[in-house]
Here is the input.
Amino acid sequence: MNKAWDKVLLARDAKRPTAKTVIKELFDDFIEFHGDRLIGDDSSIIGGLAFFNNIPVTIISQEKGVNTEDKIRHNFGMPHPEGYHKALRLMKQAEKFNRPIITFIDTPGAYPGIEAEERGQANAIAVAIKETMVLKVPIISVVIGEGGSGGALAIGIANSLAMFENSIYSVISPEGYASILYKDAKMAPKAAEEMKLTAKDLYEFKIADKVIKENIPLNVNPESGFKNLKTFLTNELNKLLKLSKEELVKNRYNKYRAIGIYQNEIREKMESEQIQD
Here is the structure.
């Protein structure tokens, strides 16, 4: 059994709850905002205001859709530049009114179409990452299903990043990896194992700060997973709201500067195990 590929299939499963369900179950009085004030509205990004434990928050999420018609309307969760413009607009608004930001990641990646590139897809992602890094409010990100490349990272810069245990996060899809390295997309299960893209992997690499247990997969019964998510959000908000604006920015900056330091530790561990063997 390929455990990593099993996680990929669970993360992509059509029955897995999308951001709309998470928002409905965990937040009160959600009001959705539309448009980027530049091009138009992108329904693959849902954003707006809500209350969590009576705390006003800004929610920004990627939405895949729940059936064929809905998936087409939401472009299968693949944002255009205007989606990232909208997300950044709402983040800036949250900073202005001192509201915490909670983002939900669930995308195979940013939309790769010609029209998206013509409207500056790469620049939109880069600016979103740059600007989010210095926002002076708490930011919490949660990977629901797929976290695909820069398309996910554009709304994934956070003080605290959590992943559901059957979610994935990677720079490229297993199929893309397999096509490049093995010249065969059918080698995706092998690629998934090599890519270290599961929540457990990301936690061990100190990229994810928390693995949210599902117990029963969200695809089957989300109740337990949603309960654990609520506990995580409650604890993280209580902790981050105690930090000053300067501390929040420094905390976020140091988190991403530290990514990659783990490599020497893992190499030393592997060398030690080889010697013991």
Summary: The chain has 13 helices and eight strands. The longest strand covers residues 139-148.
